[in-house]
D-alanyl-D-alanine carboxypeptidase (Penicillin-binding protein 5/6)
Amino acid sequence: MALPLLSGTAHAEDCYIAVPPPPVDTSEVPLPGQPVPEPVPVPETPVGGEQLGGCGPAFPVYAPAPPAEISAASWLVADLDTGAVLAAHEPHARHRPASTIKVLTALVALRDLQLDDTLVATQEDANQEGSRVGLAPGATYTVREVLTGLILRSGNDAAHALAMKLGGVEATVDKMNALAKSLGALDTRAATPSGLDGPGMSTSAYDLAVIFRVAMQNPAFAEIVSTHQAFLPGAPGGPPLEVWSDNQVLRAYPGGLGGKTGFTDDARHTYIGAADRGGRRLVAVLMRGENQPVRLSAQTMRLLDYGFELNGAPVGELVTASPAPIADVQPVDQSVQAQSEDPMFGTVGGPLALLAAAAAAVVAAIAVQRRRAALARRRRSGGDDHP
């Protein structure tokens, strides 16, 4: 079953269903000679269910209202195992992901690289803007170690190092976007592996929940994201680099499983947090939030509490499927073709795989005329939402 696409901008002025909010800086101005990307097409039918497509909240009948402290423009709470969306607020509104997109970067690396593959950090890695884990030029790291720095400390240096191992920044972004499309994450277009704002960057709370759910089915990712402390190689001849998780849900919330933080001037604060309570695993995703009236990590915890209390019918579902082969992105060497030693997507699939494949085919086949986004920015980043 194909998903038709709209050429209009339904509800765009209300809750940014078509394009993210206007930028505040110049970080998305394309390089000279490069076109401004057209907005990602909007599915005619909201992925995951009709209740997820509007502007405003969606929660079960007779359920209590969502927590009043939530300032995020868009959010979603879902069951990691069943995929049931328990409650949401404008989950398909398009916003910039900031460093939460690193979960998608990690998925590509886990698919295309072996965890014990090695790379040597470069000065270019170390010079990346924004948050860095501290990769030392000339030091050798395993892919697992670099992924640890990517997830625990949101290292843009780690994102760049992985991208170069995967064939370069442009090739990695292409792989990220192909994977997102194959998963049915149709609001998503990555512009950078790190989450630094770039031309056409877009995702949604719904898509990030889909991507994170798939990532948590990979044992290596689930282990890394739940790690509180790790030691990475330091500079040649120097002491090890101590790394702590920056995710407050992991550190302070009972049953916390980890997640991902993010911040740029244009994205504002973004957050993914997951937790287990009595064998029930939930994920909360918040986008375009502010640390008012409480920090976004605290807002995430409020939403997790709210989700664990809900027992009504779900308002939608996370539609995920195993990714189709990516034939249009060629690795530069044989090492890029190596597969992860862990199964990436578990047993999700079956009929949903047909849905995602059909959706991807429609997205690729239909040229939709859309208004151009007001993109006039240069790349600029802020630090992640460290507790």
Observations:
- Residues 1-13, 322-383 have pLDDT under 50 and may be disordered.
- The chain is about 25% helix and 15% strand.
- Residues 5-322 form a domain with the Beta-lactamase fold (CATH 3.40.710.10).
